[in-house]
Amino acid sequence: MTETPAALREAHHADVSGGWLRPAVFGAMDGLVTNIALIAGVGGGGVSPKSVVLTGMAGLVAGAISMGLGEYTSVRSSNEQVAAEVAKERRELERHPEAEARELAEAWVARGLPRDLAIQVAEAVRGNPEEALRMHVREELGVDPDEQPSPWAAAISSFLCFSLGALVPLLSYLIGFTSLWLALGVGGVGLFVAGAIVARFTYRSWWSSGLRQLVLGAAAAGATYLVGAMIGIQGGIG
């Protein structure tokens, strides 16, 4: 059976321009690590299970809102900066089209294209102002002006995924168990599963990706547990 070349398939690459994957992954991991660490810290200090749940829920709500707003502001500001640079490049193309065409040709020559061919292509592109603008922006800014990430997609995916991640280590408490170690174990499973899911998009080994997230989360939980235990002992909590 003959395999169809990837270049002939309509979609042989993942969509990396929508702006949702990075904030979704970051949000889920941050939610997991943040609440695992919070629970470990207050639990290590000897507080009651009710206080652990209260702390975890407060961390979930505050963190999800912060992540959503932060992602929206970050992506929106980045897009506005790109738009300003695109407008600047558009003005230069209108005022100095010959110089801009030479600049584009030189960029292609630097990449190994024969000079005569680079000049010929740059002149041909110059006849299509919108395509010329896209070419210049790609070469000079390294971005595609027509494929900027959505700030709303980033904000919503970050908010939802942080909330889901932060909820995982609270599940055992919410269904009636009061063991801190059970909650941390559930959170550890969540970290491993989240890391394994991320491997689906990055083509890494699922077990190494899951193990990496588990180790990082365990390090954060261990540090906050020790801090909580020290404060609890010194302050006479529990």
UniProtKB/TrEMBL annotation:
Any one GO CC term of the record: endomembrane system
UniProt-listed InterPro entries: Ccc1_fam
Pfam families: VIT1
A Gene Ontology BP annotation from the UniProt entry: intracellular manganese ion homeostasis
Main location: membrane
Gene Ontology molecular function, alphabetical: manganese ion transmembrane transporter activity
Membrane topology term: Multi-pass membrane protein
Residue intervals passing through the bilayer: 152-175, 181-202, 214-237
UniProt KW keywords: Membrane, Transmembrane, Transmembrane helix
Subcellular location: Endomembrane system
Name of protein: VIT family protein
Organism: Micromonospora globispora
UniProt lineage: Bacteria, Bacillati, Actinomycetota, Actinomycetes, Micromonosporales
